[in-house]
Amino acid sequence: MNRHFFTCIALVSGLYFFSGCVESFEPKVAVKDSNVLVVDGSINGKGVSTIRLKRTVNLTQNGTAPVERRARMFIELQSGGQYSLSETAPGTYTSAALDLSTSQAVRLHFTLADGREYTSVYTPIKATPLIDSVSWQPTSQGLQIYVNAHDETSQSRYYRWTYDETWEFTSAYQSFLEYKNGRVVDRTENAYNCWGNEAPTAIQVGTTTRLSEDIVSQQPLTLLPSNSVKLRYKYSILVRQYALSAEEYSYWEALRKNTENIGTLFDPLPTQLTGNVHNVADASEPVIGFVGAQSVSEKRIFITHSQLPREWRSVTGYESCKIDTIPRPLAPPPTPAEILGFFQRGEVVPIVQDKQTGDYYVSTPDCVDCRRRGTNVRPSFWQ
To answer: Mind telling me which PROSITE patterns this protein's record contains (predicted)?
Structure first.
């Protein structure tokens, strides 16, 4: 297939129209090109490079994509020299922080555990301009976030962006007690204040080739619904910017169209993906991935709820939570051992105890422990 991977291998052969309507039709798609190697990542000439190796799976197959472990991986300079990457998580390979000249051309070279060897094409390291600002604007649809940048040398022209989101949230109820070692004791660990994190995979690319100046102005990144839980207290977004070559931009743009626009009768057909990674011994093996080389620019902003329209209210996901009591009005009431049995089974979590009656106010773990939806460890960058 020579590095040309087609994401669609069967088309609907007929359309049936009746009374002005399009009838639903589910074609039988042939299974082909499963277990294809996917190389995800780029070479950061001015920092840490991260490369992930995975395998594709059939649409009918459940579970996550399998990863390639125990690969030997290097970043190679065309002028000579190499830098190793170590496996820091299953299928994820990371380099030390690099400081390479933009005059260098580099490539990725790795060997899988089964001995198969792959390389990317040598590519010059592009200098990514700084992000001028990350701005935002409340709209009727929600909170729109934008990125702004420019390159005075007009050498960039093609861009890609990724971002990480972090937000502060709380559980429905703050618990002051916990069941531990057969007893109800004062809670010592925070289970009320937490932080969520998400790294969306939507592909964000842009180009200024049709403009007289290399200026990115108000490029939309993401739209948060006005009732998003991410906006309830404080929200932060870290934006990363990558300058691309024309070939790398074409790859990401084709991948974006394939992953975002397919699904209805009137969407564009899948397009060909041409990457720059190949099997050294078998150029016909399909490989998905384009390993570019550039520096990376970053900018983080924070948005607090007080900065947003006053009428915006978040849907927390805790709307169905409620507080109950133990013992409930029972005859006879449960014994202390029976009460502890409720907590031992993990069905409910104690919140507080009524000092006069001895009753426990309780709720479910999902409603009390925010760690089920995030982490109680405050991020080092949080402010």
So the answer is: PROKAR_LIPOPROTEIN
